[in-house]
Amino acid sequence: MADLRAVKTDAARRHDPDVRGFASDNYAGAHPEILAALAVANGGHQIAYGEDAYTGHLQQLVHSHFGQSAEAFPVFNGTGANVVALQALTDRWGAVIAAESAHINVDEGGAPERMAGLKLLTVPTPDGKLTPELIDRQAFGWDDEHRAMPQVVSITQNTELGTVYTPGEIRAICEHAHGHGMKVHLDGARIANAAASLDVPMRTFTNAVGVDILSFGGTKNGMLFGEAVVVLNPDAVRHMKHVRKMSMQLASKMRFVSVQLEALLTRDLWLRNARHANTMARRLADGVRQTDGVEILHEVQANAVFARLPHDVSERLQKRYRFYFWDEPAGDVRWMCSFDTTEDDVDGFLLALKEELARQD
Length: 361
Prior knowledge:
By secondary structure, this protein is of the alpha/beta class. It contains 14 helices and 11 strands. The strands form 2 sheets. The protein has a 7-stranded mixed beta sheet, with helices on both faces. Strands 8-9-11-10 form a 4-stranded antiparallel beta sheet. A hairpin with a 7-residue loop joins strand 8 and strand 9 (about 305-310). The relative contact order is 0.16.
């Protein structure tokens, strides 16, 4: 016990737990229920590489959320989930159609192309969402050996701009893609926030409307680490176990990823966390709308607020609360709320924003 106390004291010196920000939901710690689940799973020995009791029970939970044919493959992180999922859907000559703003295109360091060996075919979108018409800008040339073959449409729910696809919009995309012989991948890094925004079960806009495979996010919604690839249509993928292993995403002590996903999907922790984060984003947006000198750029549907304000105001504000520029030359910023964002956090940030804007006068 003395050693444990020393560790706690030592760790407390490294960061101030009272510091809050709006940079990313990745900045938040782990939810207490997740930490408690990890402690329970830590006792004794369990079979490695996914043959443990927690990974087995996780499959039952996935069935309850996505149907009996669904199967979860826990992985370490979101980029790994996307690379594994897309690799399982494509041939060596395959390409993936995605929004220009998609995480797989902008924020994954070329991993889908470098590690999975596929080509990304991107389309500019006004709100981060693809449509059948936008997909058709890249959906051609299947018999042209000089062009990578479009085999997959990848969408993000909710999108990188904080917008949310309706189930009908995803159904239209799936029907259109399948009509061209393509498969559909959904990057669900914030799938819980989308479900909370729509107030529907996750299956309503995934397997129920034709999505073939899903990257299920947990880290941004209260987990310590880990995500999962959820195969919704077994006929759409090949050799998932082998793809996961050769993509360096097979955890030996998989119980520690699976038990977190299990805790998230049990007693609706995933939904409680997401609803709270979304509510805090709406509170932030409502306050911003009442503030002169700030423009909200996109409809606030999940846990992100995109805004435009004077550059020097943002720079001063960043010294008080951490957040990122989205398009720095334009003065666009992104503010993210998390499962642990409080009303006081939001109100304090709004006060700081107004104070920095007042310094412009």
